[in-house]
Amino acid sequence: GQNIDQPTEMTATEGAIVQINCTYQTSGFNGLFWYQQHAGEAPTFLSYNVLDGLEEKGRFSSFLSRSKGYSYLLLKELQMKDSASYLCAVVDSNYQLIWGAGTKLIIKP
Amino acid sequence: ETGVTQTPRHLVMGMTNKKSLKCEQHLGHNAMYWYKQSAKKPLELMFVYNFKEQTENNSVPSRFSPECPNSSHLFLHLHTLQPEDSALYLCASSQAGTEIVTGELFFGEGSRLTVL
To answer: What are the tens digits of pLDDT across the range B61-70?
Structure first.
């Protein structure tokens, strides 16, 4: 079967750095997405990785290792508005999106 | 504002009611999706439309009936639902060709459905 694993919940402090991990076992790989979803709002696109390495976009970075079936989302200089759920999704060989259950990130002052 | 609008935002219905969820996208996309989001579970893909043609139906019970009259509008017709169908129903769109996913998805804010 296909599976995406990510922690259910994480807590971090305002101004700090947090890393949200995502591991996957899928039939093939055609890219990995990270989405952010604030409570009661639409999921919004954060990043897309298809090659190994780190992609940096402002305070957010996303890393991919295809050989390890592993990605992480790194959030720097945390702000209260970063409190949200972070969804990891992998595109498999049939171009189906396989979703993780999401990681709820709680930011404390 | 993501360019995808869903109505109603909240819906409470009895098991014998018939209701519809509506989705409209203003992005010029040609693929539209219905997803079910339940607490602490992965998003479940229900239906996919590419160029108004249904290309995916992931073993969804017949009490859910999709309709795509044009590439900008998508409906989900609901009838004789069960309490376990209570969830957030998300609509999404993307720029897609023959593949199901070739780019990022743009989601609406969802319709929160409660079945009594």
So the answer is: 999 999 999 9
Instruction: Find residue B10's DSSP bridge partners.
Output: B112
CA triplet A15, A99, A38: central angle to 5 degrees? 40
Please list every residue in chain B whose beta carbon sits closer than 8 Å to the beta carbon of residue A1. none
State the best of B2, B105, B111 to mutate against chain A, taking most chain A CBs within 10 Å. Answer: B105
In this predicted model, what pLDDT tens digit does every residue of A52-66 receive, in sequence order? 999 999 999 999 999
Write out the two tokens for A4.
């995406």
**Residues in chain A with pLDDT < 50?**
none
Q: What is the dihedral of CA A80, A54, B44, B4, to 10 degrees?
A: 60
Question: Taking Cα atoms as reference points, which of B35, B31, B65 lies closest to residue B50?
Answer: B31
Token output for A9: 């919940």
